[in-house]
Amino acid sequence: ERLAEDIGIPSINISNIIQGESGISADVALRLARYFGMSVEFWTGIQIHYEIEKAKMILADRLEKEVKIFAPA
Hints:
Layout: H1 2-7, H2 11-18, H3 26-36, H4 40-66
Helix pairs in contact: 3-4
């Protein structure tokens, strides 16, 4: 609750991010970056990495079947 209070967002938002129920928005990334003295890219990078790993698990078989590999003519 302290983190949420210190960065000015509802504590449920922090809980949802931690539980994977919602992502780190640009707004939250900016707030976390300022709070922890880190770059906003660090926080957005975590979100993108999570989304890519989740998509890999969901789409792995479909990608092989549906997407051809480019071969120059």
